[in-house]
Amino acid sequence: MKNAPCNCGSGLLGPSCCDPFLAGARAPNSPLALMRSRYCAFSKGLNRYLLDTTLPKLRAEIDEMELQRSIEDSVWFGLEIHDYQQNGDQGEVTFSARYAQKNCLYDHHECSTFHLHEGRWYYVSGKAHFRQQKLRGAHPCPCGSGCKYKSCCASKR
Ligand SMILES: [Zn+2]
Ligand SMILES: [Zn+2]
Predict the structure, then answer these.
(1) Residue 148: nearest ligand to its CA?
(2) Strand partners, 91
(3) From ligand 1's centre to the CA of 15, what distance in Å?
(4) 14-156: which CATH topology?
């Protein structure tokens, strides 16, 4: 999918957006770019990237197996950035993301904080809340394809 639009929803193609970050070729130069690339990592199941972009001293708190399981169980439907600010070595991004896990659809809303550490931006923590709704197989797929969920994204998991 080399020339597909980037999963983060920027409207750019992957190679001009998050792909170089995910491949480790470049580091995101702002909290917003990091946030977008982390969304892509969630949607593509790149749990290594999620760990590597978490502030080093906080990584030990992440259960990598659990992260991987949760990612494998999820289908992602889009990212929306609501607010963004950067102040010196601190950054904040408010966003919402939609995803399905098992047969539930989540509207996840979060304010994430980021920190510039030794020349790189890292994810620190997030204050999140979400709404949850049952997603039945016959439900129109949240990706907007017009197909039923069970014959669309549910089957790509
Ligand atoms: Zn992107
Ligand atoms: Zn779908």
Answers:
(1) 2
(2) 86, 114
(3) 9
(4) Nuclear Transport Factor 2; Chain: A, (3.10.450)
